[in-house]
């Protein structure tokens, strides 16, 4: 992918901030009202919202993310940490 954003190096904190902003936007909430330790389902996201986030992350990071990743990493904080590790080569892609 030649997207400039995809070539950017992301860490867990940056990914968490990005996800908080996106969830806040989807739910029309202030970012401070989005708890990164709450499950996505508790944040009011339905399956369509979650799939849209996964597609956006695919494009943002330039990798293909399995749609079932939310089952293994059900919170913003867990998902951000996993993706940061994945991007740094610490984890193998699921």
Textual characterization of the structure:
With 94 residues, the protein is mainly alpha-helical. The protein has one domain (9-88): Orthogonal Bundle (Non-ribosomal Peptide Synthetase Peptidyl Carrier Protein, Chain A), CATH 1.10.1200.10. It is 55% helix and 0% strand. The chain is built from five helices and no strands. The protein has helices at 4-7, 12-27, 47-61, 69-72, 76-88. α2 (12-27) packs across α5 (76-88). The protein is globular. InterPro entries: ACP-like_sf, PKS_PP-bd, PP-bd_ACP, Ppantetheine_attach_site.
CATH hierarchy, class: Mainly Alpha
Task: Tell me the β content.
Answer: under 5%
Domains (count)? 1
- CATH domain topology: Non-ribosomal Peptide Synthetase Peptidyl Carrier Protein, Chain A
Form type: globular
Helix proportion: 55-70%
Distance between the termini: 19 Å
Global structural class: mainly alpha
**Reported CATH architecture:** Orthogonal Bundle
What's the CATH H-level homologous superfamily?
ACP-like
Q: What about the largest sheet?
A: none
Q: Uncertain segments of ≥5 residues (pLDDT<50)?
A: 1-5
Radius of gyration: 12 Å
The counted number of beta strands is 0
